Amino acid sequence: MSQSKHTVSGDFELTMDELRVVARYVVRDAEDVLPVFEQAVPDDPRPRAAIDAAWEFIDGAHRTKLQRVASLDAHRAARSAPTEAARLAARSAGDAASAAYLHPVAQAGQVGHILRAAASVARIGELQAGDDPAIGDALLDRSRQRATPVLVDVLRRYPPAASGGNRVARLMSTLDRSLRQEADRSPEHPCASGAEAHGTEHTS
Fold first, then answer.
1. Which of these, 175, 129, 133, 127, lies nearest to 155 by C-alpha position?
2. Which helix (H) or strand (E) holds 168?
3. Are residues 117 and 174 in contact, defined by beta-carbon separation less than 8 angstroms?
4. What is the 3-state secondary structure (H, E, C) of 64-130?
5. Distance CA 168, CA 61 (A)
6. pLDDT digits over 52-72, tens only?
7. What are 72-112's pLDDT values in tens digits?
8. Shortest CA distance to 147 belongs to which of 45, 24, 1?
9. Which residues, other chains included, contact 160 with Cβ-Cβ below 8 Å and sequence gap of 6+?
10. 75, 119 Cβ separation under 8 angstroms
């Protein structure tokens, strides 16, 4: 992976390496649920293309219009998907590609680019289990365990996510709150080792 220290400036700075960590966190969730979309809409390649575009950036390529276009295409696929689960899966793929363009502005809405895919995975799990909230809680815990110290550090530069009216927004707010609280309790938050910490492993 490129070790570029190029920064993106706004209210604060984000390095390309930090953006790659965020993108890797998002793409893992998107990959987990991509089959949900592809089973519902087998002839639509747009969400998979967005995941591939995310991996190109994660693996060291410069971010380009490829990530922007692939993200927009995946979100269009989400709008036309036939079920809530398929819509959420496609949108997660779009979020993975757009993570390369996370904005360094202190706005709570930016948290969605970091955590919405994880919340969507939890919601899909609930739907597949007959709307069982215990499944959502378990999947949120898995996403919490996946969050590296770098990811949490980036998250904490933004205001907390608002708990909106829909289930995905509430799940995202719950995950956001738990990651911040854990970091507050553990200033010596243990660093993940190897590729997991630096966002280099490509498992797809």
1. 175
2. helix 167-185
3. no
4. CHHHHHHHHHHHHHHHHCCCHHHHHHHHHHHHHHHHHHCCCCCCHHHHHHHHHHHHHHHHHHHHHCC
5. 31
6. 999 999 999 999 999 999 999
7. 999 999 999 999 999 999 999 999 999 999 999 999 999 99
8. 24
9. 108, 111, 173, 176, 177, 180
10. no
For residue 113 the two structure tokens come to 């680019």
Helix axes 133-146, 111-128, angle to 10 degrees: 140
| Average pLDDT, 10 consecutive residues per value, the chain (204 residues) | 58 93 98 98 98 97 96 97 98 97 93 96 97 96 96 96 89 96 69 38 42
**What pLDDT is stored for residue 167 in this prediction?**
95
DSSP state for residue 43 in the 8-state scheme: T
The neighbouring-strand residues paired with 7 are 15
Q: Give the pLDDT score at 187.
A: 56
d(CA 55, CA 174): 27
Half-sphere exposure of 28 (CA within 13 A, CB side): 22
Q: Which amino acid is at 132?
A: D
pLDDT at 116: 97
First CA to last CA distance, the chain: 16
d(CA 29, CA 93): 9
Q: Which position has the token pair 């390496």?
A: 17
